[in-house]
């Protein structure tokens, strides 16, 4: 029996896809002087920034500069480019009516995640928010999802981890949760399918059919 749904945040509940894309574009151009294909940039979605930038330089100081530039862009433009996907508020309302616990497992800094969730009016539905500050290991390791389940007092097999990137699905799978990929991802959907998620949904409200 499913007792909880764990959600990735960006690209799953909140439509910040364009914000993240422009943040990466600006960062790579300003710091490294390079312009990357869109597909290469979207493949970085869902990963901790440190891991994403480590693919382009081994210099720790440059990586820190990349992270700082990315975060500065995000902080500056976040509020104008962040809103829930269609159907998200209705989904969360119905899940709570059914007594299903809800949580967010994100690679985003907690203060920024909370701000975006407050802006999008979804924070009131959440029973737990797990961000990188809360665990030693991060996606795709299972620790973040396992930590959320422990807090909620449930077994991982009683939860579904929902996300728009392979890292989200691998996190859920490594924790022992069921997994659900979203077809409205901006990533190559074949990358999600390679992880062999338990479910795939076309829109947020389809998640109701899984419980």
TrEMBL record:
GO terms for cellular component: cytosol. GO terms for molecular function: inorganic diphosphate phosphatase activity; phosphoglycolate phosphatase activity. InterPro entries: HAD-like_hydrolase_sf, HAD-like_sf, HAD-SF_hydro_IA, HAD_2, HAD_sf, PGP-like_dom2. It comes from the Bacteria. GO terms for biological process: DNA repair. Its EC number is 3.6.1.1. Pfam families: HAD_2 (PF13419). Coiled coil: none annotated. PANTHER family: PHOSPHOGLYCOLATE PHOSPHATASE (PTHR43434), PYROPHOSPHATASE PPAX (PTHR43434:SF26). This is Pyrophosphatase PpaX. It comes from Clostridium vincentii.
